[in-house]
Amino acid sequence: MYPQLEPELEEKATKVRLLTSTGTGTKSPAHSEAKKPAPAPKWKRALLRHVPVFQWLPAYNLEWGIDDFIAGITLGLTIIPESIACALLAGLPVRYGLCSAFIGPLIYLIFGSIDKVIIGPTSLVALVSVQFTVGRPIEFAFLLTFLSGIVDIIMGSLRMGCIFEFISMPVIKAFSSATAVLVIESQIKVLLGIKYLVPGLINSVSMLISQIHKANMADLAMGVFAISFLLLIGLLDRVANNEKRHKALRICCRYLSTSRNTLIVLIAGIFSYICLCYREQLPYTLSKNSLSSFPNFTLPVFTIETPERTYSFWQIMRELNVGIVVIPIVGILTNISIGKLTPKGMVDTNHELFTVGLCNIFGACVQAMPSSGAFSRYAISTASGLRTPMANLYLGIVVLLALGYLSPWFNYIPEASLAAILICSLYTLLDFKLPVRLWRESKRDFGNWLLCFVVCVLFGVEVGLLVSIIVTAMHLLFLWARPEILVKIQALDDMQFISVVPGNGIYFPAINYLRERVLKACTRADFKITVVIDGHKITGLDYTAAQGISKLSTDLCRNSDAASSALLILYRFPTHLQHLIDLTENLVFCDSEAKVKEFLTQESLRNGYINLKEHIRASIDLGYKIEIE
Amino acid sequence: MYPQLEPELEEKATKVRLLTSTGTGTKSPAHSEAKKPAPAPKWKRALLRHVPVFQWLPAYNLEWGIDDFIAGITLGLTIIPESIACALLAGLPVRYGLCSAFIGPLIYLIFGSIDKVIIGPTSLVALVSVQFTVGRPIEFAFLLTFLSGIVDIIMGSLRMGCIFEFISMPVIKAFSSATAVLVIESQIKVLLGIKYLVPGLINSVSMLISQIHKANMADLAMGVFAISFLLLIGLLDRVANNEKRHKALRICCRYLSTSRNTLIVLIAGIFSYICLCYREQLPYTLSKNSLSSFPNFTLPVFTIETPERTYSFWQIMRELNVGIVVIPIVGILTNISIGKLTPKGMVDTNHELFTVGLCNIFGACVQAMPSSGAFSRYAISTASGLRTPMANLYLGIVVLLALGYLSPWFNYIPEASLAAILICSLYTLLDFKLPVRLWRESKRDFGNWLLCFVVCVLFGVEVGLLVSIIVTAMHLLFLWARPEILVKIQALDDMQFISVVPGNGIYFPAINYLRERVLKACTRADFKITVVIDGHKITGLDYTAAQGISKLSTDLCRNSDAASSALLILYRFPTHLQHLIDLTENLVFCDSEAKVKEFLTQESLRNGYINLKEHIRASIDLGYKIEIE
């Protein structure tokens, strides 16, 4: 017989007692368990948990060092053009993107818990933050970074990480697809060399169409070249995967592929530089405003003065509005999603909130834009063989050096090549296979996807995210109001009864529904039938529901004539929930089928639903006296 | 064997097939079912459902008529002093209370679905509405009535009645206890003859203490007399219940008891009138501003002009604020609670919203304050033997006559006697036995009770209600994030496996928790153990959760060495949910225990967890080839 599962303390339960692994000589779990060291003291475990650098640093070795160095340099070269592009997307001068690309990794090196997350500016965060900073003094951006860091840390301290569990996968996917659509749309105008700024996708598209005649062919040519280059070089990755014989060729292909962003920027930049040696002006737009200097470490200012007006801290807060909550949520979402892809598969969301919060607070002190992990960098860190977060150190140094010495050269990078980088990196986020699958398999999930996508695209990603979370939460609440309850007539030894099997725990929103379903079924039988509620699936019950069950027995009593009040049998109810239910005269608990049968026979006798022969047999069986009318 | 419950169409299932009721000659359900008439056409059923007067009117007879007449007159005499008291509590002249006490019952007579609900002003609604109308022109009150009627109807049309299911019983009880505390506190100052108006219980109590020296002994004496009288006459009800022999005495006691409110008002009024014949002024306060006239039927004005300023409709809306949503909710709550006490026990909340909405809209046209059913009137309608809503007609006529002809006499009623009526009727709502019981039996429900009570008393009943609904909803959501999942090591024929039994449906908020629990258990066994997820309790699964289960199998693969990837068996998963889960190489579905055993043996063989003898035996059993190393 398949053993019945009984509640047991988990700690006790998960202790492995592998009985059968005694015979053949393979290494058994028991063996490997014996190797485990004694548990560390509490403070040490807390330190290891909160400052993960101590977990891997003691075991750090040269081999890891070399791998991390190569990965760090590769990532550094990738993150530089990406940061520049994100800064432009966020409407900021390029240096502020680079600032957040050097401080984030250095903090994450120490506190980061997910190996392959590389903190830095992302197009998603840039897209959201531009709405709160556009047309405002640049200090708004740093304050937004600072305040979202503070919100991150507050959420982490209050252990609010669990709210991220209320974002379902279709919502996350719709959200990232919508972001990709919005960013790609915003970059198309850069590719075309058209400049305007209007809010909303529809406005922007109609503006683009109306201004299409102003398109600059040189920008477009540069953009198309860059996109083609990126896509072609991206294909080398496949070559690397298929190439088994020539190791040098494989490594070469892989490095070309992972550093394609850097290559296109280099090629386009050098081309522009050479052209400018011969001509005064270029036909396409270059990125500008890059000054070469290391960032200063200063606290962000909390009162902003402009020639026109002075913003007090509260005014700034009011202008930044929901931004200071949306940016942290959007940022952390990516980190959690990446964390779930790693072998460990588990993310301590509260710790992650704390770490990203620190990255943003320190970021604000070096004039950085808000930052988080990014899928594009996760892919590159995997491909470039990153071992530990130590790679962040080399990456940070590369970015810092670029910031200090290379900045003037960034002025030679064509904007269209940066737009091409963004478009190519976001193209992978566009996932339209999922909604097709959802449509086939789960209409409700498809509905959530569609709602989130449409609202994100039309009214902004933060509105879409909020609406979708509320709608999915409402559905979960509704499941408590209308749980699965099977109500049917059953027979046991020819004695009929109404069998009621609630699927979930019964909490207060469901009790009226249960009551109505039972009463409706009873009405059909004129309340002359026993009701058996089978509680073996019930995991929880609250006071309101318990009272409702007692009241149900009273209802059965009141509705039937005094002589034959219907009995309510509560069968297999969890023992710890039984005391909540008030006993009434026609309510009984049963834990065995035999007992149910006894009660049913008794009721049948009392109400005369049984013929005389049955009557006598049943009465003798149960030891009752026989009263023949 | 107790038969396994299988899903079946409910309509089909609830059709009664009583097989055994063939023997003895008692009336069987089948017999009474045969008497039922053929189902009415659709339009007729809709009419009967939406206009319940047609349900009982055709069968109306003289006996019912007499009972209803007596009950109607008794209720009319009770509702008059109560309405006056409520109008004073709401800070309105008395006639506006009476206006809503005559129009409500007349509408409810036609559309009302709960027999014993008597619509009229209630202290609860008065207490809430006074916050939105105090210190404002009187037209605000009528507009509040009108707009809450509109909101009622909108909520009913959108079938939003189910939101009332999210108010748990501890919350309702705490809410009504808090209301009672607030009203009693507000009436104590009337008993003492002190006049002030401050918001909040704490302010009010400290003001009362600081002004206690101004107390008027004559008011206090009148109040104490009225309370004592009401309590004493109330005791006659018990006498009536115990008196079995003398029918006349029983009836007399019951009528004295049910009309005690009228009696005290009559006694106190006549006393005041006689006193005023001899003296110029009375030492205690009388109610005032009663003018004798029938109400006009006019639409409420939507622009209010006062000597100081003019309020546009939007300004009024802004001033009334949440009031136009809170008043309908608070009003309907009482009706639903009463409905659950009636024999039918079922309330069509949407229909009730519609009916109360009509009462309020028409009420606003005759200058009435917001109205709803009240527990005090339910008790009296039960005691006075009401049969059908026809009693509402007599009640309405009595109130209308009082409004037209008796109003000048209301000026002789002492305010203290009205305060006494409110205090005595609300005293029964104070239920402090419930929190004691909750504390013993369900700490969480006690917490909800306490939260609701404290917030209601300190920050207002509408804030308390809202906060409590949100907190209880958050708990329900949390139950989806942390469902009951039993994880333990089990053995089947000496082959061990990790048994995972999720208690509820697994939806997206729970999937990470499930994954973490399983991975944690697997880590202890170095991922060399088969995992069996027993899904027999699972009622639902969404796409995110299904993907998570697939991912779990990949996790098991990735974490164990390539040679021995742990198997994930999904046992007894509902068939209609299986297609959602992506199949991976180490994920299998099983519906029988034998199949599970086969998989376990196979795994044991493959991973060498079984000794040689077992190995051979098992292999022969299952027909596998034996490969001895």
Automatic annotation (TrEMBL), chains A, B:
* InterPro entries to which the protein is assigned, alphabetical: SLC26A/SulP_dom (IPR011547), SLC26A/SulP_fam (IPR001902)
Keyword Ribonucleoprotein carried by entry: no
GO terms under biological process? transmembrane transport
The UniProt keyword set, sorted, is: Membrane, Transmembrane, Transmembrane helix
Q: Please report the stretch or stretches of sequence annotated as the SLC26A/SulP transporter domain.
A: 67-450
Residues crossing the lipid bilayer are 69-94, 106-132, 138-155, 162-184, 190-209, 221-240, 260-278, 320-341, 391-410, 416-436, 448-481
Where does the protein end up? Answer: Membrane
The terms describing its cellular component in GO are: membrane
How does the entry describe its membrane topology?
Multi-pass membrane protein
This chain's protein is named CG5404
Give the source species.
Drosophila busckii (Fruit fly)
